Amino acid sequence: MNFRQAYWNEPLLTEKRSAPDETVDLADLVPPKLRRDSLKIPNLAEYDVVRHFTRLSQMNFGIDTGFYPLGSCTMKFNPKFTEELAALPTVTRLHPDQDEATVQGALHLLYELQDLLAKISGMDAVTLQPAAGAQGEFTGLLLAQAYHRDRGEERHQVILPDTAHGTNFATAGMLGFDLVEVPSKDGRVDLNALEAARERRRSPSCLRIRNTLGIFEEHVLDIARIVHDAGASCTTTGRISTRSSAERPRAR
Fold first, then answer.
1. How do residues 231-246 score in pLDDT, each as one tens digit?
2. Do 242 and 214 meet the contact criterion of CB atoms below 8 Å apart?
3. What does the buried/exposed string (b/e) look like for 110-140 if buried means 16 or more CB atoms within 10 Å of the residue's CB?
4. At the N or C end, where does the chain have fewer CB atoms within 10 A?
5. Is the model's pTM score more than 0.85?
6. Domain layout of the chain by residue ranges
7. Is 237 exposed, middle or buried (0-12, 13-18, 19+ CB in 10 A)?
8. Contact 190, 184 (CB under 8 A)
């Protein structure tokens, strides 16, 4: 099947023919010191603006038009109806500073979601505090760091596969860890290289399992065993944990 991307010779909005500006009485709307004689904003009909952005969207490549191996897992794997739920006024009109008494329904949903995710993954507890993937990575490494410190261990290395996302390396660096990169084999973590890295670095803190090639790490349980045998911790992404959580023992 051949695919031809849409292409429009679409000018900028400021380059489109603009209708004459209409005079507006600003006497009661804008203080004199904030007024200007003219603004460099085009005066366009609504349909011109809609067509402009529709054409731009048609030149984008996305999940609705083709294979999408890399990017936000949230956008790729969430069904369309969840977008409708997230757009409900009872969700969009919530404010972080609202009194807790007025958002009990939302808090109830969040509490139930935490409980379900903990049961599915075999974890003792789950936090929904991270608002994005990079924040999740940061939180995961902080948890691993706190775990080892609580045991009186000072571990300073984080093992990362070369297929990991760039934010994984940045997150580990921000927390002051030494980075140990292991190569991949056929797009997945090379188990022999991981074993060798573990032998050379006898006290790793954490292995971050993340594949940006869109390939599932089918040996994720073997990876976890190698890392756990070294007394270290694993963090991973939702895509990998979805499958492996049903097979692994309860987290300690």
1. 888 887 654 443 333 3
2. no
3. eeeeeeebeeebeeeeeeeeeeebbebbbeb
4. N
5. no
6. 1-60, 131-244
7. buried
8. yes
Q: What is the mean pLDDT of each run of 10 residues along the chain (252 residues)?
A: 77 86 79 81 90 90 68 62 88 92 93 93 87 82 88 86 83 88 86 82 59 76 86 70 38 38
What's the rounded Cα separation, in Å, for the pair 153 and 131?
29
Helix (H) or strand (E) holding 184: strand 184-185
Fold designation for 131-244: Aspartate Aminotransferase; domain 2 (3.40.640)
DSSP letters along 194-251, please? HHHHHHHSS-EEEEEE--TTS---TTHHHHHHHHHHTT-EEEE-HHHHHHHTTTSPPP
CA distance 164 to 207: 11
Pair of tokens at residue 174: 């921000």
CB atoms inside a 10 Å sphere around CB 158 = 28
Helices (H), 64-202: 73-77, 80-86, 89-92, 104-121, 133-150, 166-174, 191-200
